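Weekly puzzle thread! Below is a chain. First person to post its structure in token form gets bragging rights.
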Amino acid sequence: MKLSHSIIVSILILCLSACSMYSPTYFGSKYPATKHVQSFYASTDIKQPFEVIGHMNIATGRSEASQNKTRQVAIEKTKEIGGDGVVFSEINRQVNQHTTDDYTIKVDVIKFK
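Winning reply:
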């Protein structure tokens, strides 16, 4: 009984940590939700006036599937906070001694003027 309880708790913790891997950390202003978000990789690509309303940091992996999931999470969070666009501006790598490398994407959330 005690062993099965420990296994269930371990599986639950693993599932919760997997779900939170792509959970963005957001700091900034919030507006009414939007339905459409444009993606950019440099602010110089944006052809209309805008302002940065906040910043996000999102964990990601090296695989293409992981990066696509991260991109989709950023867009969904931006819709939720009322942004019109995201600028994927930086990828950071943190090497941990006891785990694999951790990658995070820096995202600027923009609102068109």
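Puzzle host: Confirmed. Bonus trivia for everyone else. The chain has two helices and five strands.
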